[in-house]
Amino acid sequence: MADIGVRGFGRTLEEAFEQAALAMVAVITDPARVKATQPVAIQCEAPDRELLLVDWLNALIYEMATRTMVFGRFEVAIRGPRLRATAWGEPVDVKRHQPAVEVKGATYTGLEVTELPEGGWRVQCVVDV
Amino acid sequence: MDTSRLVRISDYEWRIDPHAGMRVPGVIYASEDLIRGMDDKVYEQVCNVATLPGIVEASYAMPDAHWGYGFPIGGVAAFDPKQGGVVSAGGVGFDISCGVRTLHTGLTPTEIQKKKESLANALFHHIPAGVGSTGRIRLDAGAMDAMLRGGARWAAEQGYGLPEDLERIEERGQMAGALPEEVSDHAKRRQRDEMGTLGSGNHYLEVQRVTEVYDKVIAEDFGIHVDDIKISIHCGSRGLGHQIGTEFLKRMVVEAPRYGLTLPDRELACAPLQSDLGKAYLGAMRAGINCALANRQIITHLTRQVFAEMFPRARLDLLYDVSHNTCKMEEHEVAGNRRCLYIHRKGATRAFGPGHPALPKALRGAGQPVLIGGTMGTASYILAGTRESENRAWSSACHGAGRRMSRRQATRTWRGRSVENELAMRGILIRSPSPRGVAEEAPGAYKDVSAVVESADRAGLARKVARLEPLICVKG
């Protein structure tokens, strides 16, 4: 059992969520090796932004696990408690992606969604691998 | 961790006096060296767990404790349902019932040596490992529920094992009280293609040689001799357990106010044992335990197929199967009274002493085998629960080496191929689909498992019985 932190920065909350997703993919494989061709629609809803971040990452973990896919590009829209997104990726290719580890779940440890004083957002949490 | 914040009880036992909302003290079992190497977060997390309602006696940490989410990994805590005690999804972990099983083979190092390369290849080929690997078994809805209720017993009935395997598994291979109806469709869907797969990360299947026996009498009872070839399998409940953990962690966070729980941190999410949510989690978590037991049983079956083909003489009997991420109801003595407590062990192994009724007859004299996984380049250990260990952390011991270095640090320090080559020079064959995964799991990224085991032995958590070194390691 081990954990690793993921963090995303963005000019908007959406962009920070997209970057956090990319950071999580980097735990699994080099995102540059992923052909972002197949779109998958993702939706989630949570009572606050922190919980929404964890839900978003967990939704991606679920889709990657059940579709045996890996994602490389994300587009997120957040309205109130609701997140709608598209994740693009492709089926796992062990030779090309050389996936190092699968992510079991996103946790509430180190969980923060912060609007930065200089503008922009920082979002982060620990994922269990 | 700074030892000046701890009260030294003995060389291997340290106490944190209750402060800031702690209902009970914290107790860490480890040598001074190991404690100094521990993250300060472990201290914080041991203290946090001590604030939870209904906790009994102390919040414990094992010698291999490291920073986890909510509870430390290597954390042990008991809760009394009659005193508002809670169950915590983060106190069990995502990989519900992750554990180790060790098999005898009856083979000698010479026999293995002759076919080592082809055995490594055959195991790697036959046992699905790594990200995106799928098993050969597909479960429909009915079979899924039967598996979640039946555990290894179900697997054996399906032909993936022998009836005599079952008594060598905790709970006789089947965790009672599982409620498949509390396991979501998402969790079941995530498991559909994952039965009989190792997974990734620190999970493995190893062919090992016994290099040292420390306690001849117990080793004899366990069937362990120097130069025996054993097989150890380390894995858990796969996607199903991960999804149960994910979903209940959230429900416990969201519903905490409903139960009047004010948590120092969200990550300590829990629910009263006697609440609907607590009962639902226990039912789902027990189904997760059965999934892990069935999974290790199926992998055992696949391993037996490989050996039957290559070594007709081999007999892969089960030594024992332990789980180190669980919450189980057990009877323990508290101040002279027997009480039913819910023991969380997150990265900790149960270590029942001799005579415990949960042990099969053949092991009742020796105590429970405690199987400690090492890293692919070092060693694994087998310990035994003692009578003394019943008075330490509710009969619990460590579970492994524990990481010393983050995955990122490890990949910056080593390359997978060179780790593989270096180990091959030392006679250890690694088979893994992912060189980066191998680098992240490099032996140097872990604490010294020998020091951890030494502390467990000296602290009286369990008695050291034997040391095993890897010959072949199949990594996820």
Write the layout of secondary structure elements.
The complex is a heterodimer of chains A (129) and B (476).
Chain A: E1 3-10, H1 13-28, E2 38-45, H2 49-67, E3 69-79, E4 82-91, H3 94-97, E5 105-106, E6 112-115, E7 121-128
Antiparallel strand pairs in A: 1-7, 2-4, 3-4, 5-7, 6-7
Chain B: E1 7-10, E2 13-16, E3 26-28, H1 32-37, H2 40-49, E4 55-66, E5 73-79, E6 86-87, E7 99-104, H3 109-114, H4 116-126, H5 141-157, H6 163-166, H7 185-191, E8 204-213, H8 216-222, E9 229-235, H9 238-255, E10 271-272, H10 276-310, E11 318-323, E12 325-334, E13 337-346, E14 349-350, H11 361-364, E15 369-372, E16 380-384, E17 396-397, H12 407-413, H13 416-425, E18 429-431, H14 435-440, H15 449-458, E19 463-475
Parallel strand pairs in B: 3-4, 18-19
Antiparallel strand pairs in B: 1-2, 2-3, 4-5, 5-13, 6-10, 7-9, 7-11, 8-9, 8-19, 12-13, 14-17, 15-16, 16-19
Helix pairs in contact in B: 4-10, 5-10, 7-9, 9-10
Care to describe what's here?
- The complex is a heterodimer of chains A (129) and B (476).
- Chain A has one domain (3-128): Archease domain (Archease, Possible Chaperone, Chain: A, domain 1, 3-Layer(bab) Sandwich).
- In chain A, the strands form two sheets. In chain A, strands 1, 5, 6 and 7 form a four-stranded antiparallel β-sheet that branches.
- The mean pLDDT of chain A is 94.
- Chain A is globular and about 45 Å long.
- Helix content of chain A is 30%, strand content 40%.
- Chain A is of the alpha+beta class and 129 residues long.
- Chain B is α+β, with helices and mostly antiparallel strands and 476 residues long.
- Chain B has one domain (3-404, 446-475): tRNA-splicing ligase RtcB (Alpha-Beta Complex).
- Helix content of chain B is 33%, strand content 24%.
- Chain B has 15 helices and 19 strands.
- In chain B, a hairpin with a 2-residue loop joins β12 and β13 (337-346).
- The A-B interface holds A 1-4, 27-28, 47, 50-51, 54-55, 58, 61-62, 65-66, 68, 91-92, 94, 97-102, 104-109, 111, 126, 128-129 and B 67-70, 73, 90, 93-95, 98, 130-132, 134, 186, 189-190, 192, 199-202, 239, 242-243, 245-246, 249-250, 253-254, 265-267, 269, 325, 346-347, 403, 406-408, 411, 433-437, 439-440, 476.
